[in-house]
Design brief:
Layout: H1 2-44, E1 49-50, E2 64-82, E3 86-96, E4 101-110, E5 121-129, E6 143-145, E7 148-151, H2 156-163, E8 169-176, H3 196-225
Parallel strand pairs: 1-2, 2-7, 4-8
Antiparallel strand pairs: 2-3, 2-5, 3-4, 5-8, 6-7
Helix pairs in contact: 1-3
Length: about 230
């Protein structure tokens, strides 16, 4: 009997050890990710600076910036969705600062809501530089809808080409003067996935299940020998 149970005991112990170690690794990754998110939050909330002359997607990601100038009225919209709101249009406008042409994500309006206007005139905006990664092989091509160019993801190079701007996107936190038809949707660390707690719970749950199956197997082996 002792020799027969040795293999399932070893198998059960090794399996539990592997699953527990994976759970512990995910707990450590969770601590690392939470620290990283805290750093990103602090960076996002820092005092805004002027838009760099040559923004870099790695160095300047989430950089708080401020800009002012004229909205030209040239605008496109991006179809998206928002929890507890539903389908929305993100409104992307061209901002001329006097020396530069950049894009501003001014906020969103609900699909089917008041269309408002494309926006024109003087504006001051504070927000964060962002290089959205939303395009994949299934993203449809842009199309015209009700006289406005509709995108199905924030494709920064394509949007900049359509509006003849630098590939620079400011996601607004505050806009002056405000547009009553738009609600700013600023960049936050919520867009960064943090699933490590769920993974840790999964691994620890599997370890408990593995241990339970091992105990059940040993019990069955014992009852058969009685």
């Amino acid at each position: 009997m002792a020799k027969r149970v040795l293999v399932p005991v070893i198998f059960g112990f090794v399996g539990c050890a592997v699953l527990i170690s994976l759970g512990v690794w995910q707990v450590r990754r969770l601590a690392w990710k939470e620290d990283l998110l805290a750093q990103i939050d602090a960076r996002m909330a820092a005092a805004p600076v002027a838009v760099p002359g040559t923004p870099d997607a790695d160095r300047d990601l989430y950089l708080p910036v401020m800009a002012s100038g004229e909205l030209t009225g040239e605008t496109l919209v991006v179809l998206a969705s928002l929890k507890r709101v539903g389908a929305i249009y993100r409104v992307i406008s061209l901002l001329e600062t006097g020396t530069r042409r950049v894009l501003v994500d001014r906020g969103y309006r609900k699909v089917g809501g008041h269309a408002g206007n494309n926006g024109s005139g003087p504006i001051a905006v504070t927000g964060n530089l962002h290089w959205p990664d939303e395009v994949d092989q299934y993203t449809p091509a842009p199309e015209e809808k009700d006289g406005t160019l509709l995108f199905f993801a924030r494709d920064l190079p394509a949007m900049a080409e359509r509006l003849s701007t630098e590939p620079v996107l400011i996601v607004a936190r505050t806009v002056w003067p405000t547009d009553p038809d738009l609600t700013p949707l600023p960049v936050t660390s919520e867009i960064i996935p943090n699933d490590h707690l769920g993974y840790a719970i999964t691994w620890f749950s599997l370890a408990i299940t593995w241990a339970g199956m091992t105990v059940f197997l040993l019990w069955r082996m014992r009852t058969r020998d009685v």
